[in-house]
Amino acid sequence: KKVKVMKYLFIIYTWEGHSWFYHKFKTTKFYHELMNRDDIEVVKFQLPKEDYSQLPMKTYKMLEWAMDYDFDYLIKCDVNTFCNPRIMYLPTWDVEKVCSDESDYWGVYLCRTRWHELESWKEVKGFSDYPIEKFIKDNNLTRVHYEGKCYRLSRDNCQKVLDKGIDFVKWFNESVPGMEDLMVGNIVRNRI
Asked: How far is CA 132 from CA 63, 178, 182, in A?
């Protein structure tokens, strides 16, 4: 009996202002491993301008765009993920771990437990007055979603997010701006 070969769509999630990261990512060992696999298609999803508060909408648009490709699993990866030395767990990742069919939804859990770092993050992203701590604390307890830097979704889970519709995404975007990973995780886990 022939075993079905899974197809992976690896999306580099970026914007024009991150062209340095894109070129740097293309020099990494990880990128070259991706390019040497016949079962992985690597594509770039780029917008002209990054608006962090619009990430749920950007992710929805990315998923709509991606559905024209032939894939079983989609891997969404921020362009700077494998170029940022502050992301300490990434050196342990390899293509086999990221491009796997072990689970319909996979990534690394967000662990923002140092509140002074969260305050700095909020200020940089423009959310100084937003009570985001509640969502982070809830997620640390319930493990609902994976961090947005890099996660894998089955095609069915991509469709599940799209099935929520544009009006839902607009509502989520206004309610929890900048938290596309929280949106995806809650939809996939049937919490919203």
From this structure: 25, 10, 11
Instruction: Please say whether the dihedral angle defined by the alpha carbons of residues 83, 87, 88 and 90, taken in this order, is positive or negative.
Output: negative
CA 11 to each of CA 21, 31, 42, 126, 130: distance values in angstroms, whole numbers, following the listed order: 14, 12, 6, 26, 29
- Which of 43, 20, 58 shows the shortest CA–CA distance to 148? 58
- φ/ψ of 45, rounded to 5, equals -110, 110
| Cβ atoms 133, 110 nearer than 8 A | no
Residue showing tokens 């002074």: 116
pLDDT tens for the chain, 192 residues: list them: 555 668 999 999 888 878 888 888 898 888 999 999 999 999 999 887 777 778 889 999 999 999 999 999 999 988 887 776 665 455 566 788 788 777 898 887 655 445 555 566 566 666 566 555 555 555 554 556 777 788 899 999 999 999 999 999 998 888 777 778 888 988 998 878
**Cβ proximity of 72 and 155 under 8 Å:** yes
Pairing of strands 8-15, 73-78: parallel
Residue labelled with tokens 């996979």 = 106
Three-class SS state of 84: coil
